[in-house]
Amino acid sequence: MKLLFENWRKFLKEQGGPLEPMDPADIKTPVPPHRAGRKAAEQAKYVEKQQKEAMAQAKPSGKIQIHNAATLFKYFETGNIKNLLGKGWGPKADFEDPSLPMPDEAKQFINYMVVNNAIFQEDKIVDFLGAGAYGFVVQLEAGNALKISVGSHTVATGASGETIMGYDPTGKSDIKRYQTSREKLFEPSGEAAYTDVPRGGGQSELNIYDQGEIETPFGKKWFYAEMTKLKTLIDEMEFVYECKKKKNCQKIRMGVELEVLFIKELAHLANLVDIHGAEAFQKEETTPSRERSKIDLGRDCCITIRQDQPSEVPELAKILGRGSKGMLGEKWMDAIFTLPRLRAGSSEYFAVGHTKVFLLDKTFAKNLFNQVKELLKTRTLGEIHDVRARNMGFEEGRESIPIIFDF
């Protein structure tokens, strides 16, 4: 034992004196593997919290700013724009897993946008018109509609012909489409200039008066477009058919969506008939129980046009091929609209009605057919997936001309 103490004193002397006490902070406790991911997530939340706390402050001034900030915050509190605010929250958009801000944070965010963007300072917001996946629309006191968005959706066709849906936080597709509409609206003279869709589709451009970017506290851009206020097709159908009960309104909405889908699929078939001729779609028997046309309609078609036995394609192709030159004359499209509502694998696909088109006004339906037919000359059926009843409407006084305002 004496030798042990002597060796210890010798060691301390060689070290230059007594050892310093250990700092508890130097003790590293290993993190179990199953907690490593949780630690990283907690750290990310802490960083995000710090970013929110560092949000730039802004105080609205003047009647319009104060009114608009309060109105937008009311829409947040009622849930109308809560999810959208979450998607556009922070330095980067997160459409898949939005991080919803607390009310105080949302108010700061909205105040900043109103104070730092002229579009919120010129006219009062007076009504909430609706919301979609990436944006919402409000009415301005002057009567126009203002769309505010955090990005836009994208649609592409994959190598195997499949439709690939996605989102674009830069909003490129909407910006391009709105710019095209704006250019068509105003010539150098400043006068409105419309181009009718061929074959009587009608003047269908959405009037865009202004568009641009919205500055947010974290540097991420939102977007706006000021446009003509439209009456939406779904609202009009619910009014016309006086649906008051939720179940009945749902039937009307579904029925209208199915009629619009039929018109899209019919326009797709019409373009194929123009290319290949009606004969290419006549029946070719391959087995005693199955028939098919010589031309494949594609993987995105069809829900409302029956292809299995007995197929509707041959008869529709004949009528489309003849058009107004056939025995039906100018009523050829009416003949299609009054066909029974059937689809592959079932005898009746919706109990609201028994014909292809009976809810929609026939002139409106014909104009929509011509518009969509033009669209499908440069796009696939899958790429116009969002051309739906909920995304179209019309201007007051021009009820028979469909305007597709979002796709």
Radius of gyration: 31 Å
Averaged pLDDT: 76
Beta-strand content estimate: 5-15%
CATH superfamily membership of the largest domain: Phosphorylase Kinase, domain 1
Count of the domains: 2
Shape type: extended
Low-confidence stretches: 188-202, 343-353
Tell me the number of helical segments per DSSP (H or I, 4 or more residues long).
Answer: 11
Major sheet attributes: 5 strands, antiparallel
User: What's the total count of β strands?
Assistant: 12
CATH C-level category of the largest domain: Alpha Beta
| Element-by-element helix/strand order | HHHHHEEEEEHEEEHHEEHHHEE
CATH topology of the largest domain: Phosphorylase Kinase, domain 1
- What helical percentage do the residues reach? 25-40%
Q: What structural category characterises the helix and strand content?
A: alpha+beta
Strand order of the largest sheet: 1-2-3-7-6
CATH architectural arrangement of the largest domain: 2-Layer Sandwich
Overview features:
Phosphorylase Kinase, domain 1; alpha+beta; extended; 407 residues
Tell me briefly what this model is.
By secondary structure, this protein is α+β, with helices and mostly antiparallel strands. It has helices at 2-14, 33-53, 63-77, 82-87, 103-116, 172-185, 233-240, 246-276, 313-322, 332-337, 362-375, and strands spanning 125-131, 135-140, 145-149, 152-157, 163-168, 208-215, 221-227, 231-232, 284-287, 290-292, 392-394, 403-404.
